[in-house]
Write a structure and sequence with these properties.
- The chain is of the alpha/beta class.
- The chain has one domain: 3-Layer(aba) Sandwich (Dihydrofolate Reductase, subunit A).
- It has 4 helices and 10 strands.
- The chain has an 8-stranded mixed β-sheet with strand order 5-4-3-6-1-7-10-9. The protein has a two-stranded antiparallel sheet with strand order 2-8.
- Strand 9 and strand 10 form a beta hairpin.
- The longest helix has 10 residues.
- The two termini are 14 Å apart.
- InterPro entries: DHFR-like_dom_sf, RibDG_C, Riboflavin_Biosynth_HTPR.
- It comes from Rhodococcus tukisamuensis.
- GO terms for molecular function: 5-amino-6-(5-phosphoribosylamino)uracil reductase activity.
- This is Dihydrofolate reductase.
Length: 190
């Protein structure tokens, strides 16, 4: 069965973005950047093309985003379809967009994920944001946390507060880098 994988950068104090949605404090240079190839399917399509990185679609074939996460890339090279190599599902109750391989829906994220998990294919990438992650926390099978040595002090938390069940995850892999970034992969204990 397909897994829902929350693959995301986070500050030492647990934020995926600052108070105004900024994420420019995350380290964009350093020895940890080579590790991105391990999750090449999670690179924006235009960035992967620019870097000459192949995106085989074997790790992820679907990406889930809240509207604010999706909106970050609207002015970038990918425009309205930042991950056009993947099926992109954006959750919004009021906004709409049309682009290649993009669906904007107001459906219940839990119902959507449960349906996706029953389909054949590669894993499903939960890109963000914190509110969507809070809604889907009980459906997350694997966490891949890129912990950066920065503090935001406030902002968008890894998981928004919610009425989810306590859960335990086991460490599957830890990779540390001279840049200070640590990538820790967890699998939900069943």
């Amino acid at each position: 069965m397909r897994e829902l994988v929350y693959y995301v950068a986070v500050s030492l104090d647990g934020y995926i973005a600052g108070p105004d949605g900024q994420f420019d404090a995350f380290l964009m240079e350093g020895d940890h950047m080579g590790d991105l190839v391990r999750y090449a399917d999670a690179l924006p399509t235009a960035a992967a093309e620019h870097l000459g990185v192949a995106q085989p679609g074997t790790r992820f074939d679907t990406v889930l985003m809240g509207w604010n996460t999706y909106a970050v890339g609207l002015d970038g090279p990918g425009g309205t379809s930042p991950y056009r190599h993947l099926r992109q599902i954006v959750f919004s109750g009021s906004r709409r967009a049309q682009a290649e391989n993009l669906v904007v829906t107001d459906a219940d994220p839990v119902d959507v994920v449960r349906e996706l998990k029953q389909e054949p294919g590669a894993d499903i990438w939960l890109c963000g944001g914190g509110r969507l992650a809070g809604q889907l926390v009980d459906e997350v099978d694997r966490l891949v946390i890129k912990r950066h040595p920065v503090l935001f002090g406030a902002g968008i938390p890894l998981f928004a507060a919610g009425a989810y069940q306590p859960g335990t995850f086991d460490v599957v892999d830890i990779r540390t880098f001279d840049s200070g970034v640590a990538v820790v992969e967890y699998a939900r204990r069943r």
